[in-house]
Specification:
Layout: E1 6-17, E2 20-32, E3 37-41, H1 48-55, E4 63-72, E5 75-76, H2 82-88, E6 93-96, H3 100-103, H4 110-121, H5 126-139, H6 145-148, H7 158-170, E7 176-180, H8 188-205, E8 208-212, H9 216-219, E9 225-230, E10 233-239, H10 240-245, H11 250-257, H12 260-266, H13 298-302, E11 322-323, E12 364-376, E13 393-405, H14 420-427, E14 435-440, E15 443-444, H15 450-456, H16 477-487, H17 493-506
Length: about 525
């Protein structure tokens, strides 16, 4: 065993807001050795990202460390001044943020942003920094890296922006890389390439890795140990193989039971974890998972379990497989997780390929005919664009024709940058095609008046890839959700508020979310 590179001891973090103080982290303990990979998993809002941000002192406004230590190579980062943290960020500790669009500066070229950490922390020339930036962009699989150096973030797809963000974090070859959902926006091919790259860098540089994700499949073969978080605490911590072979905490069991692969392989409906994660504005009494657990007893509702070996409760918290549960699963007994999950209503199960109720028998609803989209390439956003300006063009979509019927679910897949999002934007009328036509319910979108197009947008909706960019940061969530109802004149104020409350229930958010701003939510 080597001395830990990172040690988080009894970390407590609070965030003061209008609705009260959120206890985001409540006694988190983690260790990470040089070259080791640690996966942090759990549902949205359980504290994964807050743990990662705490290491670099990047807590949101109102956030502060109220207890514990964060020791990185012997330095307590929780108590370190900003000057010390600035020397560490992007240098010896790199961070890949969950949202690549908001982590990139829209006014700077990609080359300037990727080279910036090297210019700040290393004694190199601008030419050397740009050469290293090109090399790093090639390393993360960005096509035509020399050309991309002079592009801006808005000119890339979401997956390409994520690769640029990863290049920024890697260019100084940090000793520790914290990756917060680094593969969320990537296709499976690029996801595999990025994860292989992280493995290679760990081996070559001895770099430690914290991989924050909700995807258990991503960490299965990529990390050495796993910490499962729930309600701002560690619920279970173990080497990856024992955890996947025999999860002990009832929450971990429920996460495995709810994997989509489990439903597909077994030919049964997708299971879900009932209920919602706890509100952290007040300290919960008892086990935080008790309200959602089918094994909870009066003891669970009255007292909070400590992190122990999970079998007899006598081993210390730093054992190889630690669990905070009064009634953990017994690996020898093959304790099933299915008892946690409520049975699905009859008739919900569907065989693959039968998701639509009408399928091929439904009448055509959306028809794309010979759809194409090209964009001009300009050397600068201020380049001349008049009639005499000529330049190269990039073809995003070329001659796509397809038909979607009523009741049908139509999947569009492909690698990052292949035109999926552009096709979707043209289909809903947010992007005019260069050639071809879009017909919805028998009408050509190009022939609609402004008034007709406004009515059309009640019938066609787009869920954007980047949730942060899709919401106005100056508006509270309640206003964001009410706005379409107001624009379309649907219901009075009371009816609109009832609909917003119902929508929050449907997507598993507390009704108090209406008073919060987008930046106050996890990704």
């Amino acid at each position: 065993m080597t001395d830990p590179l990172l040690r988080v001891e009894d970390l407590h973090v609070e965030i003061a807001g209008r609705g009260g103080t959120v206890r985001a982290l409540d006694g988190v303990d983690l260790t990470l050795a040089p070259g080791e990979a640690l996966g942090i998993v759990g549902e949205s809002g359980c504290g994964k990202t807050m743990t990662a941000l705490s290491v670099l002192g990047l807590l949101p406004p109102g956030g502060r460390v109220t207890g514990g230590r964060i020791l990185f190579d012997g330095t307590d980062l929780a108590a370190a001044p900003e000057r010390v943290l600035r020397g560490i960020r992007g240098n010896t500790v790199g961070m890949v943020f969950q949202d690549p669009l908001t982590s990139l500066n829209p006014t700077l070229t990609l080359g300037a942003q990727v080279a910036e950490p090297l210019l700040l922390h290393r004694k190199v020339s601008r030419a050397e920094a740009w050469a290293k930036a090109e090399e790093t962009l090639r390393l993360v699989g960005l096509p035509r890296p020399a050309e991309r150096l002079r592009h801006y973030p808005h000119q890339l797809s979401g997956g390409m922006r994520q690769r640029v963000a990863i290049a920024m974090a890697l260019i100084c070859e940090p000793r520790l890389l914290i990756a917060d959902e680094p593969t969320t926006a990537l296709d499976v091919t690029t996801q595999h390439q990025i994860l292989e790259l992280l493995d290679e860098l760990r081996t070559r540089l001895g770099m430690a890795l914290i991989l924050v994700t909700h995807d258990l499949g991503v960490i299965a073969r990529r990390v050495d140990r796993v910490a499962v978080m729930y309600g701002g605490r560690i619920a279970e911590r173990a080497p990856v193989r024992p955890l996947f072979a025999a999860p002990r905490h009832r929450y971990t069991q429920a996460l495995f039971a709810a994997l989509p692969d489990a439903a597909t392989d077994a030919g049964r409906p997708l299971a879900t974890v009932p209920g919602l994660p706890p509100s952290l504005t007040s300290r919960p009494t008892g086990c935080r998972f008790a309200p959602r657990c089918g094994f909870a007893t009066d003891l669970c509702r009255a007292a909070e379990p400590e992190l122990t070996d999970g079998l007899d409760g006598t081993a210390p918290a730093d054992t190889a497989h630690a669990v905070a549960c009064f009634h953990p699963a017994d690996p020898a007994a093959g304790d099933p997780a299915a008892a946690l999950l409520p049975p699905h209503p009859a008739g919900e199960a569907r065989e693959p390929g039968t998701a639509g109720t009408l399928g091929e028998t439904g009448e055509p609803l959306l028809r794309l005919a010979g759809l194409s989209k090209t964009y001009p390439l300009h050397a600068s956003p201020f380049a001349r664009r008049g009639p005499g300006a000529r330049g190269r063009e990039i073809s995003a979509v070329a001659g796509v024709s397809l038909t979607v019927r009523r009741g049908e679910t139509f999947g569009i897949v492909g690698e990052s940058g292949c035109g999926k999002s552009t096709l979707g934007r043209m289909a809903v009328g947010l992007e005019p095609p260069t050639a071809g036509s879009v017909h919805f319910a028998g009408r050509d979108l190009a022939t609609l008046t402004k008034r007709e197009l406004r009515a059309h947008r009640r019938q066609v909706q787009l869920m954007f890839q980047d949730s942060s960019a899709a919401m106005d940061p100056r508006m509270r969530v309640g206003a964001v959700l009410r706005e379409p109802l107001v624009i379309q004149g649907i219901g009075d104020r009371a009816e609109q508020r009832r609909r917003v409350a119902g929508l929050l229930d449907d997507v598993g958010l507390p009704r108090g979310a209406v008073d919060r701003y987008p930046h106050e939510f996890s990704g």
